[in-house]
Amino acid sequence: MSTLTRKQREIQNREQMLLGIARTMLVEQGFSHLGLDRLAEATEYSKGTIYQHFSSKEDLVAALAIQSCEKRIDLFSRAAEYSGSTRERAFALVAADELFAERHSHFFRCELIIHMANLDEKASPERRERLQALEQEILGIVLKPITEAVQNRDLVLTGNWTPEKVVFGLFCFAMGGHFGLQNYSSILKQIGVTSRAPHLFDNVNIFLDGLNWKQLSSDFDYSKTTKVVMQEVLADDDNVGN
Amino acid sequence: MSTLTRKQREIQNREQMLLGIARTMLVEQGFSHLGLDRLAEATEYSKGTIYQHFSSKEDLVAALAIQSCEKRIDLFSRAAEYSGSTRERAFALVAADELFAERHSHFFRCELIIHMANLDEKASPERRERLQALEQEILGIVLKPITEAVQNRDLVLTGNWTPEKVVFGLFCFAMGGHFGLQNYSSILKQIGVTSRAPHLFDNVNIFLDGLNWKQLSSDFDYSKTTKVVMQEVLADDDNVGN
DNA sequence: GACAATTTTTGACGATCCGTCAATTATGCA
DNA sequence: TGCATAATTGACGGATCGTCAAAAATTGTC
């Protein structure tokens, strides 16, 4: 059965190759310029073969988004293991997100695109479900330090605040910043916003200070945390799929 | 020349009609299902006529985004005239944004779509420039109460904070929330986020408290502000273009 | 009102792209 | 080797974007 295995591995490798080239085309030329005929020509395979891997053009982009999520989970998991206070760990996750969006913007861009195009209807059910499962996994990772902070009273939530609501706040900062810089760059440039990182970290600090999550940024230097995390996480950050 | 004027007005009316129907099709069926042949049939005009109004499909969507910005500016301008503290006025703008995204989500969706598709290359230069000018106008409106707050020391900015940076923070909350609810609704539902408004207002309050913008939310009930603004602004909020 | 010049409208057409499928080629197995 | 199964191909149908020469409508003039 070694021949069969060889063939199967060959097919798997081909899928990675297809995705790699497709990602390049998608990022450099945009969704509308990503043509399957062109992809077929670029990869020296026929269109029929490509359709054996992906049920539609949208399904292909979904596969790219899945890759992106997997890569993100990889980074997040490592950041979550940072040893420090709950707020430091939350901050580590924000740093990981920032790192991801910066170093792997092409991956992230696939996620944005797949969520804007009507993926829900056109991607294959398998990939749709897998993508959703991965996103839920990410949610769980981010939720963890927050619930822990509530348990050990680093963070005391009042009123109608819940850990999930805190996640939503962080999600808005991250997503709003990413989306803004990708799509409103010209207008943001005019207000001096050209790079996410410093603003994102300051925003998050103000937000967490507002929630009174100990230690406050006045009592602890979180820029060190981010720096250490960035370097640790970045250390063995492999550029899979170029 | 009254006949010429009549003809010209006829053409202008036709453009509004085209945009109205196109917006419905875009919102109900998505960008990919917005076909110019179908639009031609629905409006009982020919495709050639449509191309006399819009240089391309993307240009049409740009025109929709322009309408959206104009409507937004209308709401923002009125919210900006709210008489109250600087922070109340900033809050009024957030409320206007929320109102806009809620009551005119179809308009807003056009803005998102046009910024995701490669508008930059395919829309007509005129509409591209107009859209950018409108966005800059919006920026100016939002910037005003912040700079005023800095001037009268309701808000004291320390470190590397600037009014523009505060705008960016608010922008992230608003955009991140909108984008999230439009595109990540299934995952957000699982954490109990189904409606923007309450979370958005709470988030903004925490953020502005973190910036120490007087009066703090513990000393003033901003929910009243939003309620009043929503009703005042909503009062003569005409649903132009259905 | 008739007729010519100009503007507007039309829809057929070429080009492009997605997804299919019958025919062809390659592979596994006895 | 020879047959059965699996993989690959590219031509094709259907749909859509944008163009353009021909047709229709409008304007201006006598």
How many helical stretches of chain A? 12
Q: Please report the total strand number of chain A as a whole number.
A: 0
> Beta-strand level of the residues of chain A, as a percent range?
under 5%
Overall mean pLDDT score of chain A?
A: 90
**Morphology of chain A:** elongated
* Major β-sheet profile of chain A: none
Largest interface: A-B, 53 and 52 residues
Briefly say what this structure is.
Two copies of one chain form a homodimer. With 242 residues, chain A is mostly helical. Chain A has helices at residues 2-29, 36-43, 47-53, 57-80, 86-103, 105-116, 119-122, 125-151, 163-183, 185-190, 196-210, 222-235.
Task: Give the topology.
Two copies of one chain form a homodimer.
Chain A: H1 2-29, H2 36-43, H3 47-53, H4 57-80, H5 86-103, H6 105-116, H7 119-122, H8 125-151, H9 163-183, H10 185-190, H11 196-210, H12 222-235
Helix pairs in contact in A: 1-6, 4-5, 4-6, 4-8, 5-6, 5-8, 5-11, 5-12, 8-9, 9-11
Chain A binds a DNA duplex (30 and 30 nucleotides) through helix 1, helix 2 and helix 3.
What are the defining features of this structure?
elongated; 12 helices; DNA-binding; mainly alpha; 242 residues; homodimer
